[in-house]
Design brief:
The chain contains six helices and eight strands. The protein has about 280 residues and is of the alpha/beta class. The chain has a single domain, classed as 3-Layer(aba) Sandwich (Rossmann fold). The chain has an eight-stranded mixed sheet, sandwiched between helices. Helix 1 crosses helix 6. The longest helix is centred in the C-terminal third of the chain and has 24 residues. The chain is globular. It binds NADP nicotinamide-adenine-dinucleotide phosphate (NAP). The site of NADP nicotinamide-adenine-dinucleotide phosphate has 28 residues, from helix 1 and helix 4.
Length: about 280
């Protein structure tokens, strides 16, 4: 693989946590070029990814690290300019956008305007701007389907479908219908936006790309990353590699037809999270 017809995969951000696990698994389990982003220390992140489990040293040509901070749109457009230049005529086959920060507010009195604004900027505006700059890389309805690997591929490889997938990390706590405990105002509200962005973007793709590309939102479960550090020990958690592996398999199995679940939010078990 590796020719333009097979497309490229993108994970943003991939510096740590779930994004790192997704990038690692895409390097280990596919032959696609993998573009990963970090806000800083791109060389270090690249080295960590190349020395992580399952990734052989020969994969270095497939991995490109680019600097993106979603609060600075110019870094997003610089990323897409680089992609256009370095991967000419190569469509986006699998995108995972995951920027997320948590500002914990237990009561309205604890809401801090600057911290809440930053949550919205990273968790809601971040995915919106990524979508703005990346959407043109997704195949149009007239584009050829992606070639798929044959059935002889081994079990530890990910078999990607012939359409493109644009996945955005939401969170179960962004679901209004699931909200039974309150709190976390800015995180909940900013992640609720991701459900809406996904549906709206998918409606755009239904027209522009038909069954050649879909958008979907994800909930990873409660995962042992820096994000949940203050709750470690208190409850059972998934490891990032488990959650990323389950989500990748789920994404690869999601059909592109309108009844198949596109435009909605799915968790790591493949169960729907309603908005
Ligand atoms: N862990 C869970 O249980 C859980 C549950 C539900 C949803 N999620 C969602 O899953 C996603 C990944 O979470 P995680 O658990 O992997 O968290 P994490 O380990 O804390 O990673 C957060 C990531 O977001 C990046 N980030 C923060 N601000 C950014 C910005 N301005 N621009 C670009 N990237 C930025 C961080 O980059 P730096 O390394 O540069 O800081 C880091 O890569 C988040 O959207 C989170 O809301 C996680």
């Amino acid at each position: 693989m590796g020719s333009a017809a097979h497309g490229f995969a993108l994970v943003t951000p991939a510096s740590r946590g779930l994004g790192f696990a997704f990038a690692q698994q895409l390097l280990a389990q596919t032959e696609l070029p993998v573009i990963a982003t970090a806000r800083k220390n791109c060389n270090e992140v690249r080295e960590q990814l190349l020395s992580s489990s399952g990734v052989s040293r020969g994969e270095e040509k497939r991995l490109r690290l680019l600097e993106v901070d979603v609060t600075d749109e110019s870094t997003i457009s610089a990323m897409t300019e680089t992609i256009r230049h370095e991967y000419p005529n190569t469509p986006l086959r699998l995108a995972l956008t995951l920027p997320g920060i948590l500002s914990v507010e237990k009561s309205p009195a604890q809401i801090d305007s600057a911290a809440a604004l930053e949550s919205f900027q990273v968790n809601a505006l971040g995915p919106l701007l990524l979508m703005k700059h990346l959407s043109s890389f997704l195949p149009k309805r007239s584009a050829p389907a992606f070639p798929t690997t044959d059935s002889s591929s081994s079990e530890d490889k990910l078999t990607l479908p012939s359409h493109a997938i644009y996945a955005m990390m939401a969170a179960r706590v962004g679901s209004v219908s699931d909200n039974a405990s309150g709190g976390w105002y800015s995180y909940r509200a900013s992640k609720a936006a991701v459900f809406q962005l996904t549906k709206t973007f998918d409606l755009h793709l239904r027209t522009r790309s038909a069954e050649k590309a879909l958008a979907v939102a994800l909930h990873p479960g409660t995962v042992r990353t820096d994000f949940t550090r203050e709750f470690w020990g208190g409850r059972e958690m998934l490891e990032p590699a488990d959650s990323a592996g389950r989500l990748l398999k789920f994404l690869a199995s999601l059909p592109p037809d309108v009844q198949g679940g596109r435009g909605r939010c799915w968790d790591w078990k493949g169960e729907e999270v309603y908005p």
